[in-house]
Prior knowledge:
The protein has 11 helices and 11 strands. By secondary structure, the chain is of the alpha/beta class. The strands form 2 sheets. A 6-stranded parallel beta sheet has the order 3-2-1-4-5-6. A 5-stranded mixed beta sheet has the order 7-8-9-10-11.
Amino acid sequence: xxxxxxxxxxxxxxxxxxxxxxxxxxxxxxxxxxxxxxxxxxxxxxxxxxxxxxxxxxxxxxxxxxxxxxxxxxxxxxxxxxxxxxxxxxxxxxxxxxxxxxxxxxxxxxxxxxxxxxxxxxxxxxxxxxxxxxxxxxxxxxxxxxxxxxxxxxxxxxxxxxxxxxxxxxxxxxxxxxxxxxxxxxxxxxxxxxxxxxxxxxxxxxxxxxxxxxxxxxxxxxxxxxxxxxxxxxxxxxxxxxxxxxxxxxxxxxxxxxxxxxxxxxxxxxxxxxxxxxxxxxxxxxxxxxxxxxxxxxxxxxxxx
Length: 305
Ligand code: MG
Ligand code: MG
Ligand code: MG
């Protein structure tokens, strides 16, 4: 049987990396020939999880060949996937984002409006009657903690919380202690260049005619990250020129107090001002209570474009 490549989105987060590993484990147990892959570098938070378990990251790939069999996890959009997705054969999608894909053939599509792909994945394991062992449970619960910022994000549902608690038992972790250690590990930007920071968790999106990148950086101290403001701005200007963007939005998210400082540059920063009803001063503003790009940022940008 031909190999099936499983991968999450570009600029992968903990959910994308762990979902490819967890889906690969499930598919292997179901007798399929699969390989867990990733479309970019591992961030510090994901590195914490992989080191905790002593396991390797999925294989780094840049693209797939024409006709390759693929399973997408934690994304359902061309913009966030391999460049050659249109010529690949999408077998399955397991996701928790808005639908951003169209195919000319039927696809197994399992998506739910929950906080994390792993919450959906948990149900796939239950449906298939496959046991969730300690390692798989740790991968799953780590992603739920990551995507929901320890259940504080408005994307977090009762189901995410309930399943995460169950998984934490199997994983034998104290969810608060482990979760905080993991999230804090992700705020360490010291080993990354400005260019890398601006790519770590960046998503491209179109808001009508407006071409945007929205990048999110987690921190325990907005002030610390703002010390790099002018370097970040120079880096952002470069990305805007290279990618011909209309706006670049950097969200610096305080995981302790649940706010985001935004730095926005480009011709269309007015979209940010309008969407959040703020005035940018020196390209920046505080967005009180905003932590979720998916639920609190993308929708208002879409509505106001
Ligand atoms: Mg993700
Ligand atoms: Mg996710
Ligand atoms: Mg995220």
